[in-house]
TrEMBL record:
Signal peptide: none annotated. This is DUF1893 domain-containing protein. Gene3D superfamilies: Hypothetical protein TM1506. GO terms for molecular function: catalytic activity. It comes from the Bacteria. InterPro entries: Cytidine_deaminase-like (IPR016193), DUF1893_TM1506-like (IPR015067), Hyp_TM1506 (IPR037081). It comes from Candidatus Borkfalkia avistercoris.
Length: 140
């Protein structure tokens, strides 16, 4: 079984699963929160494979920044696919979508809007951290 197959199998009941060899990491946090947390913790994910429920451009840029080599997305946006392709990250998906929508289902996801004009993964990390902090502050 490949790392990507193991990640896909480990995704059941979680929002994200990452695998490298026999090591498996899962999270139940929503959205891009798990990847931002792994990045903030300086978790070395270089060469890992990831399975995520939803992957748009924001998540794709975080995977690239972290050095993830392969991604499975339950739902993959067109921009997410373009981003993974442009950085040479292999991917598979269950369903292809034009856009990733917000939780209310009435607009584009705010994280996707945040990275709309960003192609540099490091810049995306900074912008997404700011946006997530802004959204959390607004919900207090």
């Amino acid at each position: 079984m490949t790392d990507l197959e193991r990640a896909k199998a480990s995704l059941a009941g979680h929002t994200i699963a990452l695998c490298k060899g026999e090591e498996v990491i899962t999270s139940d946090l929503r959205g891009i929160s798990p990847m931002l947390a792994f990045i903030k913790e300086n978790k070395d994910l270089s060469g890992w494979s990831a399975a995520d429920v939803i992957v748009g451009k924001a998540a794709a840029l975080l995977f690239v920044y972290a050095g993830v080599k392969a991604v499975y997305a339950g739902v993959l946006s067109s921009e997410g696919a373009r981003t993974l392709e442009s950085y040479g990250v292999s991917y598979e998906y269950g369903t292809r979508a034009q856009n990733i929508v917000n939780r209310a289902g009435n607009d584009v996801c705010p994280m996707e809007k945040t990275v709309l004009c960003i192609s540099d993964p490091a810049e995306a990390v900074r912008a997404l951290e700011r946006k997530l902090a802004e959204l959390r502050a607004a919900n207090r």
